[in-house]
Amino acid sequence: MLLEVMNLRVAFRRDGREIVPVRNVSFTVPEHGRVALVGESGCGKSLTALSLKRLSPTDRATVSGTIKAPERIAYVFQNPSDSLNPVMRIRDQIREALPGGMDRAAQDERIVQLLERTGLPDPQRAARAYPCELSGGQQQRCMIAMALAASPDLLVADEPTTALDVTTQKQVLELIDSLAAETGMAVLLITHNLGLVAGRMDFVNVMYAGQIVEAGPVVDVLADPRHPYTKGLLAAVPALDAPRDAPLADIPGTVPPPDRWPPGCAFAPRCAMATDACSRGQPPATTVGGRTWSCFVKGS
Question: Which of 118, 172, 220, 282 lies 20 to 30 Å from 110, alpha-carbon distance?
Fold first, then answer.
């Protein structure tokens, strides 16, 4: 395996209390694999991804568990305008990510090649530009070029299409797909939208309240979701053939903050299938044919 995460736990201290936003998370990414981590905002997806390289948002975080990761991991974050330095030209930001041993002329040539590889129509202009002179889609392509600069073994794409229009979202995702096929790098895609993983990822991990509640091959999970939360996420994806006035499905309520997670199954307060047992303890895990899910509900 290229990446192995076993029993990852991330904890913080706040007002004398321990808060654990990531709880015993385990998953793998094979070489050249395409794996998704899916869930609503606040489920712990980004914190899990940052923990792969010890990039937790505060030095007060306590990270435990086992992470066997490749040396070269690159990240593409959401909202590229927040990730790029607004007072530096694009070429100077990509230059910082290039491996050592290259003279400046070779660096400049490599920077243009990377920008051209991402499909920018005028890579020379993009290299000279400041982030504010580029559109959101162009900025994200520059972020992808920066990620490719060190020839990563694993690309972590954390909500890479946030704040982009639908057409640009499609272009960015297709670009990541084509670059992964071309370079052989593995991809860990983090998203809240189960619809984005169809036909794009091989394996999906569904995360809720800091835990993975269902995992399995994408085709199997989408065809027959077993956990009520996975079913809710899938039902919330709009159908293209639905009538225009059809109401959009949603999951009632919101993800509780880590300091107010309920006892037992954290999804129980939002689950229409919940029973008394769901609030009394952690649900058991069921593994069948390469799929795993944790739920008390029979027939799930």
Answer: 172
Q: Measured between alpha carbons, how far is residue 148 from residues 74, 104, 117 in Å?
A: 7, 18, 10
Locus of tokens 């984005």? 196
Nearest by Cα to 4 from 144, 184, 226, 186 = 186
Q: How many CB atoms lie within 10 A of CB 276?
A: 9
Unique residue bearing structure tokens 């400049």: 108
Which among 151, 174, 191 is the end of a domain?
A: 151
* φ, ψ (nearest 5 deg) of residue 98: -75, 150
**What three-state secondary structure class fits 147?**
helix
Q: Which helix (H) or strand (E) holds 229?
A: helix 228-235
- Number of structural domains (the chain) is 2
Q: Is 138 exposed, middle or buried (0-12, 13-18, 19+ CB in 10 A)?
A: buried
Q: Is the pTM of this model over 0.85?
A: yes
